[in-house]
Specification:
It is a single chain. It is built from eight helices and 14 strands. With 250 residues, the chain is an alpha+beta fold. It folds into two domains: 61 residues; 178 residues, no CATH class. The strands form three sheets. Strands 3, 4, 5, 6, 7, 8, 9, 10 and 13 form a nine-stranded mixed sheet that branches. Strands 1-14-2 form a three-stranded antiparallel sheet. Strand 4 and strand 5 form a beta hairpin.
């Protein structure tokens, strides 16, 4: 009992000494508490920011759709100078995409593509710099990306080299701010195409605005980038034929 009482008195004395030290050195105590608050606040803020960035990244990637695999000769992003390592990689052929489609039963859809930068124009209106993509009728299925207005071009229009196009939300709003763009003829890099569809909005992915694009039948871009017939892909970095979709792949 005496031992317990002595311990209680010692603890009380320690508290009194600590409070006395705080009172006698007010500035030092204030700075110490301020440092603790700043440190804890910084850690909480960093955790919140990292969590938010992670959630935003997962949301953007999920927007691509599940089970999509991208295959390209060149690494994505902006490149400066000559990358000998990328030039040494094997070219992709249109026949490669056909082989995957015909010989891989687990692949649901294949969409070979050729891409270059350009502008869309209509009646004095001009879009911002966008990706002009040459693709096949399998583009919507392979990308899980359907038009919300109009339609996508058909296999018959692809084979017949019909001058039609589908715009993303960005260029469509720039050229037709009041709507009514379907059926109009627009200019894409010196060639006229009839607008037949508008893709659903997707927003940005890793800083790239996916809505700033125009999709045209593959032959119109393939003929200028080494994709006609059995020729190989261009190594200029304009993009190689790419991506297919496998059901259930994560």
């Amino acid at each position: 009992m005496a031992l317990t009482s002595r311990r209680g008195s010692l603890a009380l004395e320690n508290v009194r000494m600590a409070l006395g030290a705080l009172v006698s050195t007010k500035l030092r105590s204030f700075l110490t508490l301020l440092g603790i608050l700043i440190g804890v606040g910084t850690v909480v803020a960093m955790i919140t920011i990292v969590t938010g960035l992670g959630n935003a990244m997962r949301k953007q990637i999920a927007g691509l759709g599940s089970g999509i695999l991208f295959v390209t000769k060149h690494s994505p992003g902006v490149h400066f100078g000559d990358d000998a390592g990328e030039r040494a990689r094997k070219d992709l052929y249109l026949a490669d995409a056909v082989a995957v489609r015909d010989w891989c039963p687990s692949v649901a859809a294949v969409s070979p593509e050729v891409q270059r930068a350009g502008y869309a124009q209509f009646a004095g209106q001009k879009s911002s710099l966008l990706a002009v993509v040459g693709a096949t009728e399998a583009f919507p299925d392979a990308n899980s990306w359907e038009p919300v207005e109009g339609r996508f071009f058909t296999a018959e229009e692809l084979r017949g080299r019909t001058a039609v196009c589908v715009l993303g939300k960005g260029p469509h709003e720039a050229l037709f701010p009041n709507g009514g763009g379907l059926g109009q003829w627009i200019d894409l890099e010196g060639r006229r195409y009839q607008l037949i569809g508008v893709l659903a909005a997707r927003g940005k992915l890793l800083g790239d605005n996916q809505d700033d694009r125009a999709i045209v039948p593959l032959p119109f871009l393939a003929e200028g980038s080494g994709q006609g017939g059995s020729s190989t892909t261009s190594s200029s970095g304009r993009a190689a034929p790419r991506w297919w979709k496998t059901p259930g792949t994560r």
